[in-house]
UniProtKB/TrEMBL annotation:
Keyword Phosphoprotein: yes
EC numbers on record: 2.7.7.65
Cofactor(s) needed for function: Mg(2+)
Shown part of the complete sequence: 235 to 548 of 552
Class of this enzyme: transferase
Species this chain originates from: Vreelandella halophila
Protein's name according to its UniProt entry: diguanylate cyclase
Catalysed reaction, written as an equation: 2 GTP = 3',3'-c-di-GMP + 2 diphosphate
Native organism taxonomy: Bacteria, Pseudomonadati, Pseudomonadota, Gammaproteobacteria, Oceanospirillales
Amino acid sequence: FVKPLNIPNVAAKITRSIRKRHQGEERVLIIDDDVDLLAYLNTVLTHAGMTVETLQDPSHLLDRTSSFQPELVLLDLHMPEVSGDELAAMLRQFEKWNNLPILYLTQEQDQQERAHALMRGGDGFINKPVGEEFLIKTCRNRVRRLRDMQHAIALDGLTGLLRHANIKEALGTELQGAARSGNPLSVVMLDIDHFKHVNDTYGHALGDVVISTVGTLLTQHFRRSDRLGRYGGEEFVAVLPNCDANAAERLVNRLREAFAEIKFVDRETSFSCSLSAGIADTRNFPGLMGEQLLELADAALYTSKQNGRNCVSV
Ligand code: GH3
Ligand code: MG
Ligand code: MG
Ligand code: MG
């Protein structure tokens, strides 16, 4: 009941960009007492573009897991000193490794043994002898799911944009990049005008639709390399690398106009909303930290509100 916005398309675009960012260099840790098997698994996965570490002596497992930060652990189920399921149980005692995928390497076919091993903390099995293609696909998929999940956790549920802490982190990262390259960077702060009135008049559910519509518009108007976040309730932050305040102002004005034209429908009536924005860039204020840039953008946003809203200030 909102003017056509191709939300599935935007979702696909976001998913594609997540995929791209998440490809390759999967970090896999393998523990097995069979040196020849270790060498084989290492060769296959390394050739497939993964970063592999192998361990013959399980007593180094905790150290190595801490230093290597694997995204997948392959554990031999039967070793002379200690069994794989004991190692899995040990790893699971640490909260930081609760979501770490663990697969057992085994010839074991006894269903009770296998069920027991799963209960101890492993997520599944790779049967020996290990086929090359099966191994690669299994490892790649496990890591991909983990990365997608980690990415999803960083996103706001209503808009699919970064959450408060994550957009601030992204700003810090992009600022370092901008300092290295000498390119400008702009920070945009946007806030929906009189949003309390929207909630009070049309209800919280429709208010949520308005918020998610702004999220969709942001992903449509900014570049894929721009970092977008829902900063607070009806407040958004965009970090634009390689973009000075003048270019950002033109862009944000187009977005502001597009938003003001959208008609939201509530039974027999319809209404439209507007938003105000403030922009700060590193050109005018070189050497500023993320926090200070955000304050400047917020001050500019305040100016826009003072000037009657539905406008952009630098
Ligand atoms: P201004 O033009 O000065 O920005 O006025 P405003 O009414 O937009 O500003 P104010 O900060 O007073 O109101 C923001 C409102 O946004 C208050 C809060 O209830 C509402 N809000 C915050 N988060 C959400 C949300 O997730 N969903 C909905 N529907 N409303 C939200
Ligand atoms: Mg063995
Ligand atoms: Mg507001
Ligand atoms: Mg606000």
